[in-house]
Structure formats: C-alpha cells, structure tokens
Amino acid sequence: MTAIPLRPPRRLVDLTLDGEPVRAPEDSTLLDACRAAGKDVPTLCQGDTLTPKNACRVCVVEVEGARTLAPACSRRVEQGMEVRTDTERARHSRKVVLELLASSTDLSTTPRAAEWIEEYGAEPDRFGADAARVDEEPKVDNDLYVRDYDKCILCYKCVDACGDQWQNTFAIAVAGRGFDARISTEHDAPLTDSACVYCGNCIEVCPTGALSFKTEFDMRAAGAWDESAQTETTTVCAYCGVGCNLTLHVQDNEIVKVTSPHDNPVTHGNLCIKGRFGYQHVQNHAQNRD
C-alpha cells in the first residue's frame, strides 16, 4: 500500500476584516477568508476549480493603503492586512458593475443576480433601450447542450475548462475585441465541426446558464424546469474503472442533468461525455421495466 506523504502545516496569517481580527492560511484569498468568516461577498466569475480571472469585478473589496479596489477572488491574504468589504466605495463599484452586466446580458438564470441587484440598488434600465446587447438566438446545433450567448458575461471560465486548466481540447476561445468579443469555436464553425469532445465541463463551470443541458433548456422553454422539486443523488459512474462521482439531478422521477462534486479527488467536477450525458439508458431501462 502506497503511503500518502504528509504535507507541511499551512502557516496562518492575521488580518482584519471589517474591524474584526481573523486568521487565514497564507495561501488563501480574501474571498476564502471572507467566506470562512461568514461574510457574503458576491462574485460571478470565481470558480473553486479554476484559476481566478478577475473578470466580473463584483467581488471587489477595499484594502487599507491600496489605491484601487482589490478583487477578493484572487488577492492573497497578507499579515496585518486591513480589509473592508462593505464600504460605500465597494458597494458603488458593485452597483455599477451589476448595472452594466444586467443592461447588456440576460441574467435571468444567474443564481442570486436578482438578489444582488436589489441589495446594491442597481438600475440596469437607466442606460435605456439602446444599451449594447448581444441579441443572439441560442445556438442549438447538437442534442446534448445549448449555447445561449445572450447570457454570457465573458468570464472565460468555459475557455479555461476546455483549455489548459482541465480538458486540453481548446475547442473554444475568445474571438474579437472590445464590444465584439465573444466565445467562439475556431473560425466560428458549428460545434459539431469543432474539436469539442462534448465532455460538458464548460457547462459545469458556467455561472450564468449561457451553457446548459439540452434537457434543461427545453424544460425551461416549456415552463417545466423546477429546481425546488429536484433531488440530487451522488453515485459512481459505471462506464469505466476510473471511479468518477456523478450527481444525478432528478425531477418527476427522471434524470434531467448530471454534475460532479467539485471536491471529489478523482473528478474535481469534470467528467467525460459518457459520464455527463450518457444517462438515458437508466431511464430506458426503468421504462422498459415498468
């Protein structure tokens, strides 16, 4: 039996959060420290399995002595650091960012977006009807998942998951610059003609619903999608011997989508096409048995 090597203990640093002294591991971020202290700092682009990109800027906090607001998702804690998470400056910045995002993209399926817009008094409508929007029809070019870029906030999480941080397929990237920037396949080819292997790991990390299971997309369109009525059961994928964990989301006794626990040491939230989309045989078997 192979012995698991012991890691050196993580050094703790002392800092102040909103006037309260806290201790946090030296390799943690301000967002980690805030969450450990029970402080609700909003964020959209942060992912627990990806390197922070500082794209959405919703999580900014004020650090004593710093000229600019710091993104809590990537700024590391330091000894003696004094941090304020709910200052007028930080709240105003979050308000403007939420207004800009909500005026240009559809945040209707973004968890907690409506709550934060209300909390920070954001008014997306103040930019008027001429605010720049994608106004693009959802791309439904396969039977597994849908790309609805009207909901995309360009957080780059899907690009990172498809690229060198996990899948190394590089089927998608950011095309264009400025207002023309968008997520695209090479030469804007249909997904079926791209390098995509349909692992669905991009769906796993998407924070806004711009990428979703075809089943979820169709059920939302029909008004049948109801997360409150869904149950989640974690099991082990039966397709091979790797041992990937699957979380089955079930509504009305049918599997509607499959995810994977992010804290699982085997998958870290990632799956292959069989694990994420190959669940239909379960329902076919159940229907035949009935």
TrEMBL record:
Query: Metal-binding: present as a keyword of the record?
Result: yes
Residue limits of the 2Fe-2S ferredoxin-type domain? 11-89
Q: Per the database record, which ranges form the 4Fe-4S Mo/W bis-MGD-type domain?
A: 230-286
Q: Tell me any Pfam family this protein matches.
A: Molybdop_Fe4S4
Q: Which SUPFAM superfamilies match?
A: 2Fe-2S ferredoxin-like (SSF54292), 4Fe-4S ferredoxins (SSF54862), Formate dehydrogenase/DMSO reductase, domains 1-3 (SSF53706)
Record keywords, A-Z: 4Fe-4S, Iron, Iron-sulfur, Metal-binding, Repeat
Q: Which residues form the 4Fe-4S ferredoxin-type domain?
A: 143-162, 188-216
Q: Name one GO molecular function term.
A: oxidoreductase activity
Q: Which InterPro entries match?
A: 2Fe-2S_ferredoxin-like_sf, 2Fe-2S_ferredoxin-type, 4Fe4S_Fe-S-bd, 4Fe4S_Fe_S_CS, Mopterin_OxRdtase_4Fe-4S_dom, MopterinOxRdtase_cofactor_BS, NADH_UbQ_OxRdtase_ferredoxin, PSI_iron-sulfur_center
| Name of the protein in its database record | 4Fe-4S binding domain-containing protein
